[in-house]
Amino acid sequence: MTIAPLAELLIFGILLGGIYGLSAIGLTLIFGVARVLNLAHGAFAVIAAAVSYVIVQATGQNLFFVAMLTVPLFFATGYAYEKLLIHKLLPLSRERRIEALILGTLGSALAAESIASIIVPRNFGLNYQLPPISLGEITVSALRLLLLVIVAVTTITLHLIIYKTWYGKALRATIDDAEAAQLMGVNFDRVASVTFGLGTALSALGGILLLLVSNISPTMGFPVTLKVLTIIILGGLGSVLGSLAAAIVLGLSEIFTGFFFDTAWANSTSLVVLLIVLLIKSEGLLKR
Amino acid sequence: MQVREIILSTIVLATMLPLPFLSSSYIVFLMSGIMVLALCSLSFNLVYANTGYLNLGNSVPFGVGAYTFASTLSYDWPLPLVLVASLSAILISGALSGIFIIRLKGAYYAIGTLALVLFAQALAYNLGWLTGGYQGIIVNVAGGSVYSAYFILAFLNTLLLLLTSAIRKSSFGYRIRSIKGNELAARTFGINTTTNKFMVLLVSSVFVGIAGILSTFYNGFVTPESSFGISITFLPIIAAILLGSSSIAGPLIGVLIITLASEIFVTTTPQLTHLVLGILLILVALYQKNIPSLRNSRLLKGKLGVSGANSKN
Fold first, then answer.
1. Cα distance from B202 to chain A (closest Cα, Å)?
2. Best label site of A47, A171, B221, B238, fewest CB within 10 Å?
3. What is the reported pLDDT for A111?
4. Is A262 inside a domain boundary?
5. Residue A192 covered by a domain
6. Is B126 within 8 Å of chain A by CB?
7. For residue A37, what is the nearest residue in chain B, using CA coordinates?
8. Chain B, 33-92: which have a CB under 8 Å from a chain A CB?
9. Is residue A230 part of a domain?
10. CA–CA separation, B193 vs B106, rounded Å?
11. What is the ipTM score, two decimals?
């Protein structure tokens, strides 16, 4: 095997991993702050992709312009989701809370999936033809490079938000110890709402970018949620950089599974990885 | 078993047993579907209400039972051998997945069991030579009918209800409920929590697996969707939680409510079924505490209060 296809696979794997990583960082922040296993996380990515796809088809606009509209829209959706649903369930007693959160997030996932399959009742995807870029022997699709840049810029922005702003400080404090953070003057409700908004917006962006990379099925919400869960378990619940690293490892293993074995098994890679990790170490790989 | 539960079960059985002789085969078919889900829901709740562990992987034994039954039948094995093979497959897969998930705790338990479901689903889709892939397998049992399945299902549901009730009062019941109360404390008092969790999980898997066999038997087919889809993976869990998991008969009524609600939409506006179901779940999550008549009714309330339903921590 020559170097050229290997490099292409490598770039594609890193890109796919980066896209999963965006969604995974969203979920790991949500889990870190509110300790809520948001089963609707993947469904939000799918519905964001479906909404953007429909707008692109209807108006003929470029997906990147449409994303500037839909990503903030899903920030608002996540914010409202926390305010109207999750926020009301958190004060319940422990057992009731677990049951209510399962019912609530599962219900949201089903509703979101159903809406996605009503607006686009089939598999969907977009493709932009950009001139390929040649680096010596290696030819790379410019579109994939562009997406890689978007993922990188988003991650760096996110890193700056988390480590350089007041909100980021409050976020990290809440993840470490919600009670102590509250005693130090952090408004937990506000941090939780904003984090749900941010996490959902990241998941939405992941879904929208995935439109340009592979076909999306309106019913793939649960598989996506599980894939993202795999990533945050590999990377350690609540850890941002760990999630990104785990996502890239997963993206690469999916691409290489598809290349060396069969694309039908590519989606099961994350499951196998997850099952093996849980078998070896029942509390996740990396501790925060 | 409580006196009122005996009365309740007698009333339910008395109304159900003559049903096939009085009504159309559609009603019998619908009721059989409800009883398949009820069996899954009761099995789920056997684990959840007693140990507090959230097993999202019920459809794994269901699918193993359904697929083993269908594929051995399609190879023209005689029926007794088919049943022996299916039951052994259920036991083996139940033991294997039990060994795998028994050490997981809390959210990891739920995630691990859900991962098993999606992995089993991937196997069903991808191992086409064995499972028929997307189309699944069509089954034709000589002399099989929805009526015989109906009576077996009614019998099994009653058996499971009685068993659940018997387990509650047995020392085994106290042991597994102590796991829910505080697993560490239970172990400190010399209870082997791992073995007990494993046993209750295995019992639950066997009943779900048999539900899978029966569902294939009267439906006449098995597909990845019919085994691992939302209706088998999530509906029984939702039904069990809907009216509060601490009651013995709660899952039965939950299944009845959900199936009838979704059946109305399946026949009128099928694409809205999951949307309506989703909204229903959100509403239940939000307003469950405002339905005291449902949660605290004498009929549904669990008698033995070790469940820790009121503990705040």
1. 19
2. B221
3. 92
4. no
5. yes
6. yes
7. B107
8. 52, 54
9. no
10. 15
11. 0.84
Domain that holds residue A86: 17-222
Pair A197, A86: CB distance under 8 Å: no
CB B282 within 8 A of CB A85: yes
Q: Count other C-beta atoms under 10 Å from residue B191's C-beta.
A: 18
- The string over A188-214, giving b where at least 16 C-beta atoms fall within 10 Å of a residue's C-beta and e elsewhere, is beebbbbbbbbbbbbbbbbbbbbbbbe
Report pLDDT for B142.
66
Contact A114 B286 (CB under 8 A): no
* A111 part of contact set with chain B, CB < 8 Å: yes
Whether B161 contacts B154, CB under 8 Å: no
Does the structural domain B3-302 have CATH classification 1.10.3470?
yes
Global pTM exceeds 0.90: no
CA A154 to CA A219: how far, in whole Å? 27
B261–A contact, CB cutoff 8 A: no
Splitting chain A (288 residues) into consecutive groups of 10 residues, what average pLDDT does each group show?
75 92 93 88 95 93 91 96 92 79 88 91 83 75 88 92 91 89 90 95 95 88 86 79 89 87 79 83 57
Q: Which of A100, A222, B275, A72 is nearest to A80 (CA)?
A: A72
The full DSSP string for B155-198 is: HHHHHHHHHHHHHHHSHHHHHHHHHHHHHHHHHHTT--HHHHHH
The identity of residue A88, as a single letter, is: K
3-state secondary structure of A133: strand
Any chain B CB within 8 A of the CB of A1? no
Least CB–CB distance from A111: residue in B271, B279, B284: B279
Number of structural domains in chain A: 1
**Partner residues linked to A135 by β-bridges:** A138
* Closest CB from B108, B119, B281 relative to A282: B108
Confidence category of residue B18, pLDDT binned at 50, 70, 90 = confident
Chain A contact for B298 (CB, 8 A cutoff): no
Q: Which residue of A has its CA nearest to B288?
A: A100
Q: Which of residues 221-240 of B touch A (CB under 8 A)?
A: 230, 234, 237-238
